[in-house]
Amino acid sequence: MDFSQLLPELFKGLAAFTLGNAVMIAVGATLIALAVVKEYEPVLLLPIGLGCVLANIPLTGMTDGEGLFRVLYNAGIRTELFPLLIFIGVGAMIDFSPLLAQPKMALLGAAGQFGIFGTLILATLIGFPLNEAASIGVIGAIDGPTSIFVATKLAPRLLAPIAVAAYSYMSLIPIIQPPLMRLLTTKAERRIRMEYAPRPAPKRALIIFPVAVTLAVGLLVPEATPLISMLMLGNLLRESGVVERLSKAAQNEIINIATLFLGLTIGSTMSANSFLNWDTIGILALGLIAFVLDTVAGLLFGKLMAFLSRGAINPLIGAAGISAFPMAGRLAAKMAQEEDFENFILMHAMGANTAGQLGSVMAGGVLLALVSGLIA
């Protein structure tokens, strides 16, 4: 082969490079910049951004049948392994004692899922099939693993934009939620102090709780069992007190490795051919609507609880009823302290936030059951 024949081989990748590839590489670079410069959920956005960049370099073979990303996709996404491993780690980090000490916070966790079902209806009216509309609605809970789990089963072709929307909006919680909190609550409401002197949950209750929840959800909503069981497994490792090494591994090595591979794999599905279309724009818009509706519903229900309790409940904790743990709970507490530095509602907000985590899994399971049944 002479030099004239070798030259096209050297530049065939450049020849295959399209404007769409350039746009998606810019999108990936933007996600990396948000992670590095703004520190918006860097653990998630950094690998997603790099995966997006790599997926749009032509002819690498990384997304082909035996390529790295295809292997990771088949092993961890198609089997739902990565989301389930992440849930073990999340469960090991969650302290359910604020929820057990204040069971009424479960109501806020339920209210925080309203946007899922409202967006499902809106998406079907726009023209999305029921299975895809259900997957889009779950974005509203801002629960990445649940969104991926549901999308993998109901709408695998939309997995990339759904996952990117869920994780991107999770990183934007400090930007999206505060204006809604200020709009829907008064200064006086945000200054409400909540006394936290409930009876501490006994050790026995903390151990029984994950087992009881797994059994209850498994019997009532079997489709949610994989997610809830792994969440509760992680929590049982934490609360049992006898497997500290396993608990620490779940909170660190297991969740970190699963998150890294999940992010890279999701990013690798963001190729120009699959991502640059009107469906993606619609999904991003509907996901934002779902997020806003969930937050609004939580805040309005929080205001109702404040009214019924004659000012004993700060409605800001309603915004923590979405799933995004622990960001939403911390943000609600921060907003209260901005109005009154000595106002500490963190434990109440965490009760609502952990209830939202359970609520999002339940909502995802309900959608899987209903939609799968209707499709069948």
Molecular structure report:
Helix 11 (144-154) runs antiparallel to helix 12 and helix 13 crosses helix 19. This protein has one domain (59-375). The protein has helices at 3-10, 12-16, 19-36, 42-55, 68-77, 81-93, 97-101, 106-111, 114-126, 130-137, 144-154, 159-171, 173-184, 187-190, 203-220, 225-240, 244-268, 272-275, 278-308, 327-339, 346-375. The chain is built from 21 helices and no strands. 52% of the residues are buried.
Beta strand count:
0
- State the order of secondary-structure elements, H for helix, E for strand: HHHHHHHHHHHHHHHHHHHHH
Fraction of residues in helix: over 70%
- Provide a count of the helices: 21
The number of domains is 1
- Rounded to the nearest angstrom, the radius of gyration is 22 Å
Low-confidence stretches are none
**Mean pLDDT score, rounded?**
89
Shape: globular
Largest sheet: none
Secondary structural class: mainly alpha
Task: Report the sheet-strand fraction.
Answer: under 5%
End-to-end Cα distance, whole Å, is: 58 Å
List the main descriptive attributes of the protein structure presented here.
single chain, 376 residues, mainly alpha
Give a brief description:
The protein is mostly helical. The chain is 74% helix and 0% strand.
Write the layout of secondary structure elements.
Elements: H1 3-10, H2 12-16, H3 19-36, H4 42-55, H5 68-77, H6 81-93, H7 97-101, H8 106-111, H9 114-126, H10 130-137, H11 144-154, H12 159-171, H13 173-184, H14 187-190, H15 203-220, H16 225-240, H17 244-268, H18 272-275, H19 278-308, H20 327-339, H21 346-375
Helix pairs in contact: 3-4, 4-17, 5-17, 6-11, 6-16, 6-17, 9-10, 9-19, 10-11, 10-21, 11-12, 11-21, 12-19, 13-19, 13-20, 15-16, 16-17, 20-21
